[in-house]
Amino acid sequence: MKKIGILGGTFDPPHNGHIYIAEQAYKRLKLDKIIFMPAGSPPHKTHKQITDENIRYEMVKLITKGYPYFDVSDYEISKGGLSYTYLTLKHLNEANKDCKFYFIAGADSLLQLNNWRNVQGILDNAALVVFGRPGFPKEKLLEEKKKVEEKYNHEIIYLDLLELNISSSQIREEIENGLPIPDEVLTEEVREYIGYMGLYKER
């Protein structure tokens, strides 16, 4: 049975922190591949300004270029409507009976999991993999992990990764303010694409 990781998000923009997380999950969990899944219309961000989904999709294709074990899916974009994780995972399972899926999410997602639509459906259709992020103490994360495991009767996989201080929101803000973005944050291709499209100049 193939082991497939799913890394979802708005990717507005995608950055090298996303690549680090995906690579670590791929290696540590011995996955066959990672699928990057840009959200079409995230239900928790309907009140926020989000870059056009096709532009975000193109940026994810650029940043994952050259990684044979990374794929990019436009499923949530092309299907339209709000992007609910449990529906995406259900679809993937029904279409790929020979695969086991691993849904990769940050510490903030675990702490807010009870606010997600159909948590049981998410955990029934994929193993949940969580990693730490700056501002989320490891002890609190592990405590919440245990609570979720007991409540839903599913094991949560914890990846103890470096907590990189990189965020898409910070990148957008710095570009808007005319500040330079370090080379280790964005790939050259994504940086050039952002410049070519004039993204994040005025938010």
UniProtKB/TrEMBL annotation:
It is an enzyme of class 2 (transferase). Pfam families: CTP_transf_like (PF01467). It catalyses: nicotinate beta-D-ribonucleotide + ATP + H(+) = deamido-NAD(+) + diphosphate. Transmembrane segments: none annotated. GO terms for biological process: NAD+ biosynthetic process. The keyword Transferase applies. Its EC number is 2.7.7.18. GO terms for molecular function: ATP binding; nicotinate-nucleotide adenylyltransferase activity. Keywords: ATP-binding, NAD, Nucleotide-binding, Nucleotidyltransferase, Pyridine nucleotide biosynthesis, Transferase. Pathway: Cofactor biosynthesis; NAD(+) biosynthesis; deamido-NAD(+) from nicotinate D-ribonucleotide: step 1/1. Residues 6-173 form the Cytidyltransferase-like domain. SUPFAM superfamilies: Nucleotidylyl transferase. InterPro entries: Cyt_trans-like, NadD/NMNAT, Rossmann-like_a/b/a_fold. HAMAP family: NaMN_adenylyltr. Belongs to the NadD family. Catalyzes the reversible adenylation of nicotinate mononucleotide (NaMN) to nicotinic acid adenine dinucleotide (NaAD). This is Probable nicotinate-nucleotide adenylyltransferase. It comes from Clostridium intestinale URNW. The gene is nadD.
